[in-house]
Known about the structure:
Layout: H1 3-6, H2 13-29, H3 31-55, E1 60-61, E2 73-77, H4 84-95, E3 100-102, E4 119-123, H5 132-147
Antiparallel strand pairs: 1-2, 2-4, 3-4
Amino acid sequence: MSPYTASSGTRPQHTLAGLGSAIDYFSQWGFDAIEAHNMDLRNRAYTLLSKLQSELHGLVLVSPPPGPLASPIITVGLPENVTSAAVANAMAENYNTVVKVTGRAVFSAEGGPTMPLQATRFTFHLFNSADDVPTLVSNFAKVVRSLM
Length: 148
């Protein structure tokens, strides 16, 4: 028997303390309230991003509209010649905002053949507010325009 298979080892105390604090924090809100908050932010952003599609030719909402198939994540396909890396870098440098780099060019198996080559993903959570949503979408639009 290997000493590595039966040993529980030393527990990372700092990780466990952090996990306990995170559970306490989320429990104060309640998981249903957190989900409702995140979905509200997502749906607000979806509405604003939908309006951008007519203005920014080639912008495609990959995520489903508000409804039972929606999650607090929105994936947006980018116009031709706009890379997800360039969008992520500009959002971070200019607006201190982190967005996910995605698309078939980045992850060939992600999303199947309908996934755009270049895409950006937004994720909404408890630390975001309703006031953040129009700012996010406005800054995203500025970045995409500057890269087109």
